[in-house]
Task: inverse folding
């Protein structure tokens, strides 16, 4: 019978939750779910100086927002807990000492001063920094004396001096490291806390992790982990080192060049479906050149060997396009409810909006979700429906002629004799209409005005657009007028007339 596939994500709660955490979590979850296995969350909080409860909560909240839920973890329990490393503290000392007893690790009593001087010498000699094995050959008597004297120590892994350590990576094949170039890694620090390396290996083994899927930056550490598995006599998991997310210049993604906090994407109003879809495109293809898919579709077609090792570019423009596709597919009523808070923040919609106000908002969102890339972006494009007092844009000296021309055309649109006549005619038609107007009724009035003027559409629609929206292009006039109604449309025209003395 095949062994159950078990994967994990193991973030450190030391700051905002990172997009890279969600990226790696997605592939771990898909690997487990595709194969009927289990996906767990482990909190690696051994760095007590930087760990915060708030950061841990944000990890929980953002991963759940993205539907990257876990079968086992600190908040849901499981048979392999506890799932916070700080609650497993006693285990690490036990296993570090087990390696000492087996001769696979040793006590190191080197002081900070000695280690600093060692690094200075290595730097002066242009050698790679690393521990020189000074305490590796201490006799049992010397060790006992130092322990008896209460000297501070760390426990180091005893790496082999010769040969190679070979990583058998699912994506990369065999990756080889010369053992004599790897120093003896600290496993247990002077304060009794484990390093990442010891805690990671011990926990992965005890929690039955079968596939370690993590970022490629951990490749250099993997030989140390492999040596620990060998030293303990444990079966090794499969290693999968995912390509790093990269900025447009192909450097590792960083907050200096890209927003990396999941909180940013949540607050900007990206849909969870859009974020998951985008992360699923990072170095991966679901097949058939399909770019838009759901989490369920991603899991259903998942094959870890289809991951490409070329560094995936974290392109915000592409994310916007992907998110827009999911906004268009989203149930309109659901999208309206989700987007409401952004309209409330801008003062467009009241917190306790009634049914009529929500219906209007739904119409606005239905129109704006075609160009918008986020829910926050929906509200940012909505001024045309909610702001009744405005001015025409003005040109500046810094603008090029190309930038100035459409603004100048907009100002000219309310100065010509034919244009003014069209505005006045439309006002008369509108004054005789009902307060609430259908799209068909507004279209009929606009066509009637065009026919009555006997001129081209530019001398009718452009001036009306100028006095009703203040913009030279954008939403269809019949949509704007039918949404804001008769009274607000007339008030807008009157406001523009007072500002620019149109007629």
Result:
């Amino acid at each position: 019978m095949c062994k159950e596939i078990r994967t994990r994500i193991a973030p450190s709660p030391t700051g905002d939750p990172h997009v890279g955490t969600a990226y790696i979590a997605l592939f771990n979850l898909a690997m487990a779910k595709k194969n009927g296995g289990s996906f767990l969350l482990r909190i690696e909080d051994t760095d007590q100086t930087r760990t915060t409860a708030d950061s841990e909560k944000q990890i929980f909240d953002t991963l759940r927002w993205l539907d990257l839920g876990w079968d086992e973890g600190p908040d849901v329990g499981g048979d392999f807990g506890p799932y916070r490393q700080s609650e497993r503290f006693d285990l690490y000392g036990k296993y570090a000492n087990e390696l000492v007893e087996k001769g696979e690790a040793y006590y190191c009593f080197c002081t900070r001063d000695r280690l600093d001087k060692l690094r200075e010498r290595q730097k002066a000699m242009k050698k790679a920094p690393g521990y020189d094995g000074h305490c590796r050959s201490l006799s049992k008597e010397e060790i006992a004396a130092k322990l008896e004297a209460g000297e501070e120590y760390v426990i180091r892994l005893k790496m082999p001096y010769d040969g190679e350590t070979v990583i058998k990576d699912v994506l990369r094949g065999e990756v080889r490291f010369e053992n004599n170039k790897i120093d003896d890694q600290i496993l247990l620090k002077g304060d009794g806390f484990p390093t990442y390396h010891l805690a990671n290996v011990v926990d992965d083994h005890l929690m039955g992790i079968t596939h370690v899927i993590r970022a490629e930056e951990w490749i250099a550490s993997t030989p140390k982990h492999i040596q620990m598995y060998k030293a303990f006599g444990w079966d090794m998991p499969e290693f999968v080192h995912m390509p790093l997310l990269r900025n447009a210049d192909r450097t590792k993604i960083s907050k200096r060049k890209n927003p990396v906090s999941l909180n940013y994407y949540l607050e900007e109003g990206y849909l969870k479906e859009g974020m998951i879809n985008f992360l699923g495109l990072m170095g991966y293809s679901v097949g058939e050149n399909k770019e838009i898919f759901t989490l369920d579709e991603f899991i259903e077609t998942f094959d870890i060997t289809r991951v490409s090792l070329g560094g995936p570019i974290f392109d915000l423009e592409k994310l916007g396009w992907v998110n827009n596709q999911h906004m268009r597919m989203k149930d309109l009523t659901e999208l309206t409810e989700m987007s409401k808070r952004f309209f409330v923040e801008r003062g467009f919609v009241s917190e306790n909006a009634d049914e009529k106000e929500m219906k209007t908002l739904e119409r606005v969102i239905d129109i704006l979700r075609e160009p918008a890339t986020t829910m926050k972006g929906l509200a940012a494009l909505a001024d045309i429906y909610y702001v009744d007092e405005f001015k025409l844009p003005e040109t500046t000296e810094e603008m090029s002629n190309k930038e100035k021309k459409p603004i100048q055309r907009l100002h000219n649109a309310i100065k010509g004799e034919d244009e003014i006549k069209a505005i006045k005619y439309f006002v008369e038609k509108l004054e005789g209409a009902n307060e609430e107007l259908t799209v068909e009724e507004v279209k009929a009035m606009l066509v009637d005005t065009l026919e009555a003027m006997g001129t081209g559409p530019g001398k009718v629609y452009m001036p009306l657009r100028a006095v009703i929206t203040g913009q030279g292009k954008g939403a269809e006039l019949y949509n704007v007028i039918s949404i804001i109604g008769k009274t607000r449309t007339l008030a807008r025209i009157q406001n523009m007339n007072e500002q620019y003395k149109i007629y």
